[in-house]
Amino acid sequence: MTVSRVINHPEKVTKELRDLVYAAMSELNYQPNFAAKALANNRTQIVKLFILERMDTVEPYYMNLLAGLADALDEKNYALQLMTKNSLDVGTCDGYVVTGMRNKDYGWLETVEKPIVLYGENQMGLDYVDTDNILGTRTSTNYAFACGYTTVVFVGINLPDSFAESREKGYTLAMAAHHAPPKVFQMDNRSHISDQVITKHFAEFPQNTCFVCASDRLAIGVERAVQHQGGQIPDDYGVIGFDGVFLDRIGSPQLTTIRQPVQKMGYETGRMVLHKIEENGAPQGHEVFVPTLVPRGTTRPPQEGQPK
């Protein structure tokens, strides 16, 4: 019974006893039967991940998220299952991580009885992990002015989603602080769409314009459009992305971007859902990570005397 208690409920025994049991297990090369442990605790040792957005627009991003999430689950001997909304009722699990939620998707969450953690901010009071989206675009907009650009345009993602709204809000707050009029374009999160939009409206953008983009994917299209129209980057035009996961490094020049610590965020999401499972669904609140500016070749260096 003592060994079983140390393995299944280590928090209920003293450190000295834990150390003795662990030492004996190591000497005997004893491997706990986690399937039996799961059965005894009425658990499946499975967490399901639902990705509710189109993978072809975010695939490099999700590789980092999955790596962090899997690391956290593996530490507690949990398996990760990747699911779609249509497979919600297939198989059993102990909890869910849901990402790519749109405002229209929240209704079906009420039918889910297992613990849920969202990857992505929300306004429904649900537990979540995300980056500070407002701070991110506020930082990139301020940086554009610090680099001496006099016109700053926002290229946003046309989605009814909290993160998209927050990224636009960060831009508008920064523009207000600089007493500058906002100029916003909204579109699908696809580089060929941002290329088309910027090409169509290029005559509206004077030299010394910087484009603050809600994703690196959009920024790639903006960069391509400016170059095709004969604009010089970064001397005449600047481009700043958001995410900092692979796509920021494929352009020429490489993108200045706002980087999210996606793998760390995935790990924290896994840790949070496991805590929620252990605490029988008790609310966990939210964890917000600070994004960082990564200056590269699509912006000029900051200029002395410019406001930040």
From TrEMBL:
Domain HTH lacI-type: 1-41
Domain of life: Bacteria
InterPro entries linked: HTH_LacI, LacI/GalR-like_sensor, Lambda_DNA-bd_dom_sf, Peripla_BP_I
GO molecular function: DNA-binding transcription factor activity; transcription cis-regulatory region binding
Keywords, ordered alphabetically: DNA-binding, Transcription, Transcription regulation
Entries under Pfam families matching the protein: LacI, Peripla_BP_3
Family annotation (PANTHER family): LACI-RELATED TRANSCRIPTIONAL REPRESSOR, TRANSCRIPTION REGULATOR, MEMBER OF GALR FAMILY
Protein name as annotated: LacI family transcriptional regulator
Organism classification: Bacteria, Bacillati, Bacillota, Bacilli, Lactobacillales
